[in-house]
Design brief:
Elements lengths: L5 H9 L20 H9 L6 E8 L1 E2 L11 E2 L6 H18 L5 E9 L7 H14 L2 E11 L6 H9 L4 E7 L3 H7 L5 H13 L4 E8 L6 H13 L4 E6 L21 H17 L3 E3 L3 E3 L4 H7 L4 E3 L2 E3 L6 E4 L4 E4 L2 E5 L3 H8 L6 E6 L2 H16 L1 E2 L7 H14 L4 E3 L5 E3 L7 H5 L4 H12 L1
Parallel strand pairs: 1-4, 1-13, 2-3, 4-5, 5-6, 6-7, 7-8
Antiparallel strand pairs: 8-10, 9-10, 11-12, 14-15, 15-16, 17-19, 18-19
Amino acid sequence: MTHLDPQLTERALAARAPRYTSYPPATQFGPSIGPDTMLEWLSLIEPHSSISLYAHIPFCRRLCWFCACRTQGTQSEAPLEPYVDALEAEADIIAAALPAGVTTSHLHLGGGTPTFLPPDLLRRLYAMLEARIPRAPGAEISVEVDPTEIDDARLDALADAGVTRASLGVQDFDPKVQAAIGRIQSFEQTKFAVDGLRARGINAINLDLLYGLPHQTHDSLMRTLDMALSLSPDRIALYGYAHVPWASKRQVMIREDHLPDGRQRLDLSLRAAERIGEAGYCAIGIDHFAKPGDTMAIAAKAGALHRNFQGYTTDGAQTLIGLGASSISRLPQGYAQNAPATAAWKARIATGRPATIRGHADTGDDVLRRAVIERLLCDFRVDPAIFGDPARVAEWTAQAAEAWQGGVTLDDTGALTILPEAHHLARMIAMEFDAYAISAQRHSAAI
């Protein structure tokens, strides 16, 4: 196991850092960004360029207790078609505002549970999105799959829609852990989904796992990993469970005294990463792993990896448009988020205008810091020479090196590198480049 500096370990246990799937984090979004701003930003997209598209399906038949995503529980399929109707109306609004010739290079359906949609609605949704914003040649079409909400008819619909990649939520295969998080899902159900996808030519398979769950032990997590690895996924995402019952009320169902403590969480994370690496996967950033021939591993090796709201990605598009309740769009000018509640989102769409209720307009400082943080989290390295203001970035790297002695190195050009044994500290180190976190720390210290 990787040797850890004791002082750095203590800092890792004490710190809480943003995931930096955006910069600034969504906590900095405000109401100054609305429909008019969104329409203006859409009009400024380069004609005939390619964008990414995300459609949020918030519905779940069961609400897993560990989840902090924006979801809506329902046993009935009655809300599904009206929701797709509203998605179609929103897509019409967005498509009408786009310049000529814009295409989709990446399309992702997330949730919630996209595969809760019946087959006919899945086909309709994919066809509608392609009709509004056509796919670019070689576009990646991905979907989140709940193995407990998939059957042959839905698998056929995904194949007919041209899906190229599927991400399957696993979390943990241990029955005691599953009972404690409200998600019962057998290995057999998961294997059925993986086999069914591959049989239909959807060969790019991602599995999502969690560490830090209630009752999770080293032995139980290793068993889960062995079962997951037996399915030979192309990518594995290994996220840390964030217990935030004040933000996600359903998490009150999880007893805190059943959760591993900070040191146990860290041990689970590091041992799991080692186990996945031993199976031949390349470590990608702070929480992803990929087979050496996977496009993500190739992008990481080439320094072309990116990070957005889906985590690490090979998607280099400058614009990501989010459709659906709570979705966030990222444009060159900033971020725009839709109304989070489904009813409020539908009401805004019914007016014929975007459902944007908040966001953030980037400053030049935001753009530079976002680029630096992205490279730090993707490459574990920041070289001031590659940025537009190298002297300023060199000041930041020097400050970060002083703050994280023993976890980073700084060469004579000002390039900062996070040492391998400190890779798990990357988000904490990234806070040294976050102007909003620095301001908050100074404000707290002054009180």
